[in-house]
Amino acid sequence: IPNGNASELVFNTVHVKDAGFYVCRVNNNFTFEFSQWSQLDVCDVTEVTESFRSSWDGISESKLQICVEPKSQKLMPGSTLILQCVAVGSPIPQYQWFKNESRLTHETKKLYMVPYVDLEHQGTYWCRVYNDRESQDSKKADVIVGKQYRSGF
Fold first, then answer.
1. How far is CA 82 from CA 72, 135, 146, 152, in A?
2. Across the chain, how many H-helices and E-strands are there?
3. Are 144 and 73 in contact (CB under 8 A)?
4. Which site among 12, 35, 79, 123 is 20 to 30 Å from 28 CA-CA?
5. Given this structure, which CATH class describes domain 1-42?
């Protein structure tokens, strides 16, 4: 990492591309040790919701806060469903997606994606973000899958 040879890693301006996992290696002429891994999450400000912008002033940086909410969508069968939920906080938030009051097993990332939607994917989705201090639910997003009409049939 450029300028990453000090006891602290400082980002004067943090960018989305800086998100990821970091580890520090300390060494002398004889041996070396690694620190524990640290994760950095960065919210893209172009995606940030108004409620996040207005509430961020004066909030402790460690407070759990959703900055990108999932959006309602109308889709045609066969198209791709992409729902996104991004949160910041310390400890780093974890994610759990829900559909129609049921937890979606193994859907624990910021992005929920269905490559080819069908009528069965219609419903109300939301994401619960949590860490060992607190949890917060995103806004609910309605996903409507419409029938494809073709002329001549």
1. 10, 23, 16, 32
2. 1, 14
3. yes
4. 12
5. mainly beta
CATH number of 50-145: 2.60.40.10
Intrachain domains 1-42 and 50-145 with the same fold: yes
pTM of structure: 0.68
The residue with tokens 């929920």 is 112
Domain borders along the chain are 1-42, 50-145
DSSP bridge pairs for 84? 111
